[in-house]
Amino acid sequence: MIKVDVISGFLGSGKTTLIRKLLKVYENEKVVLIENEFGEIGIDGDVVERDGFEVFEIASGCICCIMQKDFVNLLSRVIDDFKPERIIIEPTGISILSDIIDILRRPEFIEKCSINSLVTVVDSINYLEQCEVFGEFFEDQIVNASTLVLSKSQFVDKAKIDEITSSLREFNAEAEILTADWSTMKAGDLHGLLKGDIITDFQDLLHADYRPCRENEFDTFAIENSNKYTRSELENILSELSNENYGQVIRGKGFLRGHDCYLEFSYTNGRFIVDENQLKSSGKLCLIGKGLKEAELKALFKVKTGGLRRWLKY
User: Fold this and answer.
1) Residue 112 confidence class, pLDDT cut points 50, 70, 90
2) What is the pTM of this model?
3) Any idea what the CATH number is for the domain that residue 269 is in?
4) Which residue in 70, 85, 268, 301 could disulfide with 29, CB within 3.0 to 4.6 Å?
């Protein structure tokens, strides 16, 4: 049986960072990653492929609703053609975990693969604030998880960790909660995250009445861009994204050309990281949020092509 691990979590929680670590732990297995990007332009798949792993991307929608048919077809092809030992699925940050579980338990899949783990990544910095505003996006992912992993826990104090843990327990009293700084965890500890001792009764899944990825309207601003930026220029641009003149930017990521290197950035709720690397990449970026202002964002990044795509109520 092929082991299937689903790594979910809200926008910017740190799913891809954790997956990159897990892939290195399981590099001796034949592993395939199915990566679901909300925006038109895929970013995370490029990051993982540079590490030398097999990645399949589904973009421009969520695999639990709009892109469900594509996901089912791709999963079937991966199982039949690649015959992996393990499949890791990274759904978009506004996915419905229970819907993904339902897909994996279809007759055509249940005979060939088993759900090994259901991990939901929780952003220690932003969770409490985001849960108040976007609470419906968290409930399904948290309630149906077998393991809850706090990311960025090294950046908050114990009192906040306790508050987050208490909130998570209101949703899920059974799941294991990992609060340690997993950015410094050893391979053996990370290996235990996907240990496969799920106790979830799949007949009693929570299917939330609220359907966030079907009934909410999010925007993606996606561009492919050949402009060159200095690191300070890019940092200044990213610092401006919290300005309401550009709309509510929740998440951003991309690769852009520098003058003597390539710049990779990650943006979540006003906080950002910019890294330099020598690996070549086409210039591209994707922003996700609500009420994004296309003209203003194009002016900010000094581009003329690409732009806004609104994911309307579905």
Assistant:
1) very high
2) 0.82
3) 3.30.1220.10
4) 85
